[in-house]
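Retry 2 of 3 after timeout on previous attempt. Resubmitting structure tokens to design endpoint.
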């Protein structure tokens, strides 16, 4: 029993005392190995003490690609689509039926089945709560 008494630490916390057991050697080896590896890794990759890993080449390639894209859009500018092109397909019976089905499924609980407004605002009048126009 005296052997265990020698390993007890001096501090006492609410009557609980602990033994002074060192970590096993294999665990200390892993700890020190990981610490040394992380310092070397940080120095080599993060602080760029190692060789050039292609960052300059990547940046040059990115600049060249951006120039190619800009040249393409300079030759082929984007024009916003006309409103009739966007709304032309929305007036078919199939699209209207799908829209009605979706409105009943997701919106009618607040706005009512004919959009007259229940707990949500009325969508059929000319009064807009957050600005805008029809």
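Retry 2 succeeded. Sequence:
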């Amino acid at each position: 029993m005296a052997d265990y008494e020698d390993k007890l630490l001096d501090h006492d916390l609410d009557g609980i005392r602990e033994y002074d057991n060192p970590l096993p050697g294999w665990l200390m080896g892993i700890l020190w190995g990981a610490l040394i590896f992380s310092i070397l890794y940080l120095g080599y990759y993060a602080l760029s003490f190692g060789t050039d890993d292609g960052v300059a080449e990547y940046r040059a390639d990115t600049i060249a690609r951006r120039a190619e894209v800009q040249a393409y859009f300079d030759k082929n500018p984007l024009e916003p689509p006309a409103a009739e092109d966007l709304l032309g397909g929305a007036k078919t019976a199939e699209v209207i039926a799908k829209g009605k089905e979706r409105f009943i499924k997701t919106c009618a609980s607040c706005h009512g089945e004919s959009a007259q407004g229940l707990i949500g605002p009325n969508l059929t009048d000319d009064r807009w709560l957050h600005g805008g126009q029809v």
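Attempt log closed. The mean pLDDT is 83.
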